[in-house]
Every structure is written in structure tokens, then in C-alpha cells.
Design brief:
CATH superfamily of the largest domain in chain A: General secretion pathway protein M, EpsM
Strand content of chain A: 15-25%
Number of strands of chain B: 12
Largest interface: A-B, 13 and 29 residues
Oligomer: heterodimer
Number of helices of chain B: 6
Strand content of chain B: 25-35%
Helix content of chain A: 40-55%
Order of helices and strands of chain B: HEEEHEEHEEHEHEEEHE
CATH class of the largest domain in chain A: Alpha Beta
Number of domains of chain A: 2
């Protein structure tokens, strides 16, 4: 016949098991608590160290900025730098177009007596001798022919003496 | 000595308690045997016997067929849960077993229809629990242990029966294969178990080869050996 596992015993309270379980829970709780406390301590230390590092970085940055400002104030461009700049500008000055425009224009009564190139300013000053103003203006007109804006301008004209002289200027930079 | 106490604590005692008899055995020997009348006297005798056991002895209690009575629940359609089966069994316990309506119930889940239930008088369980305390390991009907001592189920599915007569009742069980068809408790009321069994079989279709009868040894005395498979069985130990 089929066995019948009928049993009316009350459910046993596993006292020993409960005690062991409670002890394990207590140990685990204590362990977790100690771990959490140590982690909190480490975090606090790290936060304090990070704050100190930030303050030190800010102090060093300010110090560097002050030094940089002082160095900038004390800085003087060296002489060779200026010379080098002049050489560079001279090399960049369009000498050939200036000379070509002067060679291709010729007006009766107007003669070129001197050419002064100023590379620093990017300009060319040309001293002319002229017989009358009409010829001088005609010369200027021919020089500026084909330019969108007049490149050559009259700087000075003197007719007080027997020699009539004028200075015209063109800017190329 | 402490180690001696520990060694004694590992012992297990087997007790039987019913309306008319109390037995306690340990180590394969009857330690206490008493004839009693009624629950109060039986529980008092059991308590006295248990007090004599070494401290920490585990206690397995078996009870008579008047304390734990089997009955069958009819097939009921639409029952969805175990709680509903418990409610059905509770509604039938008084009529089927003459035990109080608030009796403790155990439902067998080994067969769907009819379902087998066992009821236990709550006053008995309360008294046994108070005596056994934390040492109490089991509270089982003696007739259930008798089934286990009998052996395996018939493999051919034919009807098989068992009658278990304890100190004051006879429990008749008839099964077809694994399915119990009859589970009934009868009060002996001083009659011989065989006579009660013969009368009970009139109203049930018993197996053709008859029903074996396992009887409680009502005359056991302290110091007598007990059957290792079913303590307090008559004729169990030569």
C-alpha cells in the first residue's frame, strides 16, 4: 500500500539555525559597517586632498600669470628683430612695378631727378623737374592710367625758384 | 559529564499514546507501559514517562486511531485550490470522524479522487506538543507507520487491504494500486479486533485474499524488545 506521510508535529523552530543566522547577519552587518566607515574616511581624506591640490594649483597659476605679466611688461623687442623686419619689408617691396611705371611714361617738359624708396612705409617718392603745371598733371594722369584708384599723388610742387620741382608719391602696401 | 550528556542527547525515543494505553521505548526497548482511561490520564502518563528520558532525547510520538482518524473526501468538481479542499475537509470532519470540527487536517496529495484526509483531535495535539516541547520530532498515527512497515504497493493494481488494530481502535484501509478506496476508523470498545474487522468487511468489498491485521501489543512490559520497523506491534519480535 502507498505510504502516507501524515505528520501533525508542529513546525520546528530552528533555534540553533536562527542563532547562527543571526550571528552571521551581525558579523556581516559589523563588517559592512566597518567597511563603510573606512570608505567614508578615505573619501573624506580624498576630498580634503583634492581641495588642497586645487588651492595649490590656483596659487601656482596666479603666480605664473603674475610672472608672465611682469615678463611681458619688461620685454623689449631686440635690435636684430627690427633689422630683420626692415629687410623683410624691403625684400617684399614691389620695386619692379614702380620702375616699370616710371619707364613707360614720358611727357615733354617733365624729368625724373630722384627716386626715393621707403620700404618701411611701402611708398615711393619721385622728385620731378617740370616746365609747367600742365605737363606735370599730364604726367600724373598717365602714371595713374588704368588704375582703379589713383596710385600716384602729388605731394609737393615748388615753382618759386628757376627750377620747378615736384614730388609725387605712390603707396604699394 | 558534558560528553555523556551530548551522547545521550543523540537518542531518539518512540512513544505511543491513545485513550487506553501509553508506551515509551528507546534503544529498541520498552521503557514505560501504562494502561489509562481518557486523554488527561494518557497525557499525564506520557509526561511522566518523558520526564524520565535523558535530557535532549528526541521524541517521535505515535497516536491511536481514535486520535487520528482517516476519511475520504468525495470527488468535487470546480475545486481550484488546496485551501478549498481544506475547507471541504473541515466541513466534513465532524460527520465523517466524530472528531471536533476544529480538528487539525492533513490532506493526501497522492490521489485526486477520492482524496484521503486525516483528522487529529486538537486537544491531543496541544497536550503532546506541551509535553514534547522542542524535543518533539513527529506526531503520526500508529496505523500510518503500520502501512510503511507492510511493504510495497501491489503492482498489478488489484485490491489490497490492511487493518491496523491499536489499543482502542481498528483502522481499515483498502486500496487499488496507489488509490485508497476505503479509509475508516472503528472503535474496538472491548471487542476483539478480528471481530470488528470481519464486521467492517461486510460493508466493504475487501480483497479476495483477505485483509492482513496488524495488532498493537497491549501486554508489553518495560524491558521488552520492540519491533525495529513498527514499535509496540504484537508479535513483531520473537
Amino acid at each position: 500500500m502507498r505510504p502516507l506521510k501524515v505528520d501533525f508535529a508542529p513546525a520546528r523552530r530552528q533555534i540553533a539555525a536562527l542563532v547562527v543566522w543571526g550571528a552571521l547577519c551581525a558579523v556581516a552587518t559589523i563588517g559592512l559597517g566597518v567597511g563603510a566607515w573606512q570608505a567614508w574616511e578615505r573619501r573624506t581624506d580624498l576630498v580634503a586632498r583634492a581641495a588642497a591640490d586645487s588651492a595649490e594649483i590656483a596659487r601656482l597659476r596666479e603666480s605664473l600669470r603674475v610672472r608672465a605679466d611682469r615678463a611681458a611688461e619688461a620685454a623689449v623687442p631686440p635690435a636684430y628683430a627690427r633689422d630683420a623686419l626692415a629687410v623683410a619689408r624691403t625684400a617684399a617691396f614691389p620695386l619692379q612695378p614702380v620702375l616699370r611705371s616710371l619707364e613707360t611714361v614720358a611727357v615733354e617738359g617733365v624729368r625724373v631727378s630722384a627716386i626715393e624708396l621707403n620700404a618701411t612705409r611701402g611708398s615711393a617718392d619721385v622728385t620731378l623737374e617740370f616746365d609747367d603745371y600742365k605737363a606735370l598733371l599730364s604726367y600724373l594722369e598717365l602714371l595713374n592710367e588704368g588704375e582703379a584708384a589713383p596710385r600716384w599723388t602729388l605731394v609737393r610742387a615748388e615753382a618759386a625758384t628757376a627750377r620747378r620741382q615736384a614730388v609725387i608719391r605712390s603707396v604699394w602696401s | 559529564m558534558w560528553w555523556a550528556g551530548k551522547r545521550s542527547a543523540s537518542r531518539t525515543a518512540v512513544a505511543y499514546v491513545g485513550e487506553e494505553a501509553v508506551r515509551v521505548a528507546a534503544g529498541g526497548t520498552v521503557l514505560a507501559a501504562a494502561k489509562v482511561e481518557g486523554r488527561e490520564a494518557a497525557l499525564a502518563a506520557l509526561a511522566a514517562a518523558v520526564r524520565e528520558l535523558p535530557r535532549g532525547t528526541r521524541l517521535q510520538v505515535t497516536v491511536s486511531g481514535t486520535v487520528c482518524r482517516p476519511f475520504l473526501l468525495p470527488a468535487v468538481e470546480g475545486v481550484a485550490s488546496e485551501a478549498e479542499w481544506q475547507a471541504i475537509a473541515a466541513s466534513m470532519v465532524e460527520e465523517s470522524t466524530d472528531l471536533p470540527a476544529e480538528s487539525l487536517l492533513w490532506l493526501d496529495d497522492g490521489q485526486a479522487a477520492p482524496r484521503l484526509a486525516v483528522a487529529m483531535d486538537p486537544a491531543w495535539r496541544q497536550g503532546i506538543e506541551a509535553i514534547g516541547g522542542r524535543s518533539l520530532r513527529s506526531v503520526r498515527p500508529w496505523w500510518a507507520l503500520a502501512i510503511e512497515s507492510l511493504g510495497s504497493t501491489r503492482a498489478d493494481g488489484e485490491s489490497a487491504g490492511l487493518a491496523v488494530a491499536d489499543s482502542e481502535s481498528l483502522v481499515l484501509l483498502i486500496a487499488e494500486g496507489d488509490t485508497y478506496r476505503v479509509a475508516q476508523s472503528y472503535a474496538l470498545e472491548g471487542e476483539a479486533p478480528a471481530a470488528v474487522l470481519n464486521r467492517a468487511l461486510v460493508s466493504h468489498d475487501g480483497p479476495a485474499e483477505g485483509v492482513p491485521l496488524i495488532e498493537f501489543d497491549g501486554a508489553a512490559l518495560p524491558g521488552q524488545r520492540v519491533d525495529e520497523h513498527l514499535a509496540f506491534r504484537k508479535g513483531g519480535v520473537a
